Amino acid sequence: MSKPYINLLRHASLLAALLFSAQSVAGKDDFNQKIELSSLYQQADGIAKKAFHEGNVVIKQGSLELKADELEIDASAGDGKEIFIATGNPAEYSQQQEDGSIVTAKANRIEYKRESRALSLSGGAQIEQNASSVKGESIVFNMELEQIIAQGDEQGSVPVITTFQPVSKEKSNAKKQQDKQP
């Protein structure tokens, strides 16, 4: 294998790491861990700054994991403006947060725009954390601002469903006590 090709594959794999750069919601230790990207097939174009991975795509970095059938990486707009598109039936994202909870996201298509730190889910989209969830046809999750915008389908047959789990009285009282501490 030629050295330029190996460097190109390394570059494509490192670009995938940028998908998980929103430290505000994730365990900070994840971003200090090595990144492993595996697939049955990969193709990269250093001039076009695009890469494609297909077949059992798995990206791991610390507690973060993304599984998809296919992954496209487009870095042609420049550093910090990369776009990652994972597709599957469904594509799945999970990561342990600093508080120990696990955030999971599933959709037929998961698109991440590094510049806006937004995760766009479409096609059977759902995000879950602590047994609470948001489901709809599409969900946009701003990872940095921790904001969610969800939509049903245009025909109105698939609504947005949000499920909140009740907080026990003990947890509520403990939270109030914690908030009072300086």
Walk me through what this model shows.
- The protein is an alpha+beta fold.
- It has a single domain (3-180), classed as lipopolysaccharide transport protein A fold (Sandwich).
- The protein has 2 helices and 10 strands, in the order H-E-E-E-E-E-E-E-E-E-E-H.
- A hairpin with a 4-residue loop joins strand 6 and strand 7 (118-129).
- The protein is globular.
Concise structural overview:
The chain is α+β, with helices and mostly antiparallel strands and 182 residues long. The chain contains 2 helices and 10 strands. A hairpin with a 4-residue loop joins β6 (102-113) and β7.
Major beta sheet summary: 10 strands, antiparallel
Q: Work out the helix count.
A: 2
CATH superfamily: Lipopolysaccharide (LPS) transport protein A like domain
What's the helix-strand series?
A: HEEEEEEEEEEH
Give the CA-CA distance, first to last residue: 60 Å
Number of domains: 1
Overall radius of gyration: 18 Å
